[in-house]
Amino acid sequence: MTTTATQCALMIDASTTRDRDDALTITPTTSGWDVAVFVANVADLVPAGAPADRTAATRVETRYRATGAVPMLGGQLEQAATLSATHDRDVLAIRLRVSAAGDVALAGLDREVLPAGSCVAITHDQVTTVLEDPDHAHHAQLSAAAQLAQVLTGRRRAAGAFVVYDLTRGLVSGEDGRLLALPEGHNAAAYVIVQELMIAANAVVAQYAIDAELPILFRNHLRNPVAPADVDRLADLAAALSTVTTTAELAALQGQLNTAISKATYGATVRGHIGLQVPAYTHATSPLRRYADLVTQRQLLAHLDGTGLPYTAEQLATIAHALAAITAERDADSEAAQKARTRRANQAAIAAGDLSHMNDREFLRVLRLGTQAAPPASVATELADRATAGRLHAGHLAVLYTTDHPDWKTLRANLTAQLRAEHAYLAPSAISALQQIDGGQIVAPALDTDITGPPHQRTFATRAHLEDMTTRWHTGPVKKTTEHVALWDLLDIIGGHTPSADPTTPPPAPPEPEPTPTVAPPCAPANHTPPPAAPRTPNPAEALDAFALHAALGGDDDTRRARRRANALKNPVGWLTTLAPTIGAGELHVDTHTEGPPHERTFTVTLTAGPARATAAAPSIKAAKTAAAHAAVTGLFDASTAAAVSHHDGGA
Fold first, then answer.
1. Coiled coil located at which positions (predicted)?
2. Closest CA to 442 of 419, 415, 469
3. Residue 277's closest CA among 253, 297, 261?
4. What pLDDT band is residue 442 in, cutting at 50, 70 and 90?
5. What percent of the chain has pLDDT over 70?
């Protein structure tokens, strides 16, 4: 067995670390670097099948908790095997030769001894100081390690690996494609050095086992079989992290990663590692902390000694399955515990009463919890505030349809009336979100559209139906608007606010065309201009929805009414076009009359949308229509305000 004492080996760990698996030496050469990774020899201290081995197999790995670590091997064995600056230690030495371009080759694999005094512990807190001090005893070696780590990182990125070291935000990539927070107490530069050299060592050990036909536990990481083939290069997703600015965007990026790749697993056969973009990979550098590393170390040492292997390929496959089962069970328990903690935090937030600081995702969780009983006052208030401020999205709205509580039903009806008046476009997204909540049980609704009228003056009649639910027909000059109104109507039926319509009801008859006189009446003088024709009075088939009108105008909140009024006057024609079908008035009716000679026309336009009606004249139809719409909106809000004041005075 070789004794190693020519160069001081660096044990780079956190200041609280007790289990030191590995030590490193890095020597620059004319063609690159020579690297030695010394791994604690645990296999000789813990024979296969021994009580400590059985305990380690059930623990799988060392568990790090807020209250302290639970060593995989127990505290006594861990300290007997951990690398030390003051005691001789048996090690498995993995020697690498790395070119200036980052190509890694195995230069040697053997048993060795690290004598007392040949190792030095450098904590993460000390790494920056050592790198910045040229006179420090370990500056040259640590600087070479940092330079080598950058070369290895660049080489992996060029190969298409998912590599993230976002030191500004403290985000790093795990081996299996997950985004992780930089562990507490870890220095970024030190983390990169250790991570890159361990990846290099594990990759060459895996290749060594393949070449030697030695069965070990490989670490396999595959592309998701249902993902498109173009996700094989994960570098683009890593690069996309630079554009992420919010928690929601970060979650979306992680979702793309989860879609692209499967979870990493152990196996007795090699299947490649997509996250690292290497053909073969294993875990062999942390036998104190991971059982898989201990199993592989036993195989490697037996092969080097020329003795019988502890495990057959079939036994390794059984171990791999057992590790996967234990890990899956623990992950499920951890997820359940996290959900319980989140639930308690949400309950505390609801009780505290102020939810305004929550982002959309956090409020969605609170809303899901709140809909399991009567509406908590804090949730109801926050819903109203977010609806008024335009901060409610389709996911929030969909959650409201998952409860049958009568108080939620009333609150939902009020919010729906408000949102359909201000944010008509939300209906399709809300139904889509409801489908996702229901696990795809709700199929996509179908839309029936009937088109009448000449090409320049189309009238669209639309209704929606889903399973045994059918909405009324909704008409208007804009197809998209009628579709949105129909989908809002469908949401009202789903929520039990309105009954389903008769599916056999035909589309409403198109409006009668206006008669156009071809000659002036005989008794009229030649220079007489006929008076404007009386505007056609709409006769909607359905009664006006007073509740929807009240909500569209802002309800009883003066501040909201003022804001609605200002928004309506920014585009009065568009606002009236949306208002008419919303309140059950059918469509916005436009009557136009022309006066004057061709070179001096005057256009008189009368707009009618339910109770909103006004007439205006201007040199162009557009100007007259806008002026009439402005007057109609102003009159509608003024009349509503006067009625509210009168009602208030009468009630006093």
1. none
2. 469
3. 261
4. low
5. 84
Angle ∠(246,251,257) on CA atoms, nearest 5: 130
User: Where does 46-136 show beta strands of DSSP type E?
Assistant: 63-65, 68-70, 89-99, 104-114, 119-123
Determine the Cα–Cα distance for residues 578 and 593; give it in Å rounded to an integer: 24
User: To the nearest 10°, the Cα dihedral for 575, 578, 584, 588?
Assistant: 70
Q: Alpha-carbon dihedral of residues 523, 529, 534, 536, nearest 10 degrees? A: 100
Residue 478's alpha-carbon distances to 228, 455, 460, 587, in angstroms, are 38, 13, 7, 9
Element spanning 646, H or E: helix 621-651
What domains lie within the chain, and their CATH numbers?
Answer: 2-338 (no CATH), 558-651 (3.30.160.20)
Give the whole-angstrom CA distance, residue 85 versus residue 117.
Answer: 5
Residue-wise pLDDT for 528-555, tens only, equals: 555 554 444 444 434 566 777 877 787 7
Q: How far apart, in whole angstroms, are the C-alpha atoms of residue 123 and residue 20?
A: 11
Question: Measured between alpha carbons, how far is residue 469 from residues 371, 405, 414, 425, 542 in Å?
Answer: 24, 21, 21, 21, 19
Per the document, the length of the chain is: 652
Q: Report the half-sphere exposure of 60 (CA within 13 A, side-chain side).
A: 16
CA distance 485 to 491: 10
Sequence-distant (≥ 6) Cβ neighbours of residue 56 within 8 angstroms: 46, 72, 73, 291, 294
Q: pTM of the full predicted structure?
A: 0.58
Whether residue 179 contacts residue 164, with contact meaning beta carbons closer than 8 Å, is answered with yes
Residue 126, H or E segment: helix 124-132
Q: Give the β-pairing of 119-123 and 9-13.
A: parallel
Whether residue 461 contacts residue 508, with contact meaning beta carbons closer than 8 Å, is answered with: yes
Q: Return the residue matching tokens 């000694």.
A: 305
Residues 604 and 623: their CA atoms lie apart, in Å, by 10
d(CA 282, CA 292): 9
Which residues, including other chains, have CB under 8 Å from residue 558's CB and lie 6 or more apart?
Answer: none
Residue among 578, 447, 588, 579 nearest 511 (CA): 588
How far separated are the first and last CA of the chain, in Å rounded? 101
Taking each continuous run of H as one helix and of E as one strand, the counts in the chain are: 19, 21
Contact 84, 119 (CB under 8 A): yes
